[in-house]
Design brief:
Strand content: 15-25%
Number of helices: 4
Largest sheet: 4 strands, antiparallel
Distance between the termini: 52 Å
Structural class: alpha+beta
Shape: globular
Order of helices and strands: HEEEHEEHEEEHE
Length: 169
């Protein structure tokens, strides 16, 4: 299947949207009243250091939760914040889950796991969960890789974050 002009446009719009939303913060502003004309106000981060964030909150990492929506509601994420993936170990009553880091936006949009790197297997999310520290200034694309990407495609088990610098006052 050829990568047509309309596909390129769609990828461009989605990339701009994802980056725009990940960097958006309603508390950022531009103030001409400031004596340092042209300086930006940065959002006050109420924590002094890195945060531990449980992916999915009380719902943890499970099939059927819209994690893209969850990440937008819990943004912004900062450098050195720790994402904690908690999920039940495989059993007769639960489906297995895993955590993959996808290499790029195209893989993320298509839930293409061929070049993805597994960060947590189906047993590593039990107990206190699997922890991953956001150490680089780049987009992180996460997905569940179980059932050949079915959890990612149909179960909405995917999200992305772009960590921001933590401003101190």
């Amino acid at each position: 299947m050829a990568f047509t002009f309309s596909h390129q446009g769609l990828v461009l719009v989605l990339t701009a949207s994802i980056l725009g939303v990940s960097l958006a913060n309603k508390d950022w502003g531009f103030s001409l009243a400031n004596k340092d004309r042209g300086s930006h106000r940065h959002p006050y981060n109420h924590t002094n250091g890195p945060n531990k964030i449980i992916v999915g909150g009380s719902q943890n990492w499970q099939f059927g939760v819209n994690y893209t929506d969850w990440s937008l509601k819990n943004a912004p994420f900062y450098f050195n914040d720790t994402l904690v993936f908690k999920y039940d170990p495989p059993s007769n009553t639960t489906f297995p889950h895993s955590v993959y880091l996808l290499p790029n936006l195209r893989s993320f949009l298509n839930c293409d796991l061929r070049r993805a790197k597994m960060f947590a297997n189906p047993t590593q999310g039990s107990g206190n969960g699997f922890e991953l520290v956001l150490k680089r200034r780049k987009p992180y694309y996460f997905a569940c890789g179980e059932r050949n990407g079915f959890h990612c495609k149909v179960g909405l088990m995917k999200f992305n974050v772009v960590p921001l610098l933590r401003w101190r006052y």
